[in-house]
Amino acid sequence: MSDTTEKPKKSFTSQEPQIVTEGILKAHWCGYPPGVYFRCKLCGYKFKLGDYWRWIYGGRSQIVNFIVCKSCDIGDDHELCEKMKEREKKFEELYWDKALEIKSLCNRPRRISHFER
To answer: The whole model's pTM is what?
Structure first.
């Protein structure tokens, strides 16, 4: 007699490794169209059908939840969260300061253009 019982589906919030399915690829991630933003948040790898992926809860480390690929998943959630914090800090230093600089330029008193005279 064969065992016909199916295993219950794992929720992605279980933080257990998952395999990319068509349904997951067609889902809206981070509010973007299907498949556009379904990437490893540490290395940027864009997932394909059959790939390994894992969702990481970042709340205890006060960072956003994120997804990792097999090559970035070192198994230790705390260490992954620390890597994500380093990544966020790096990008904040690279891009946020530039955004503040641009904003300060936009807040300067503007000159009257030639056409407004």
So the answer is: 0.66
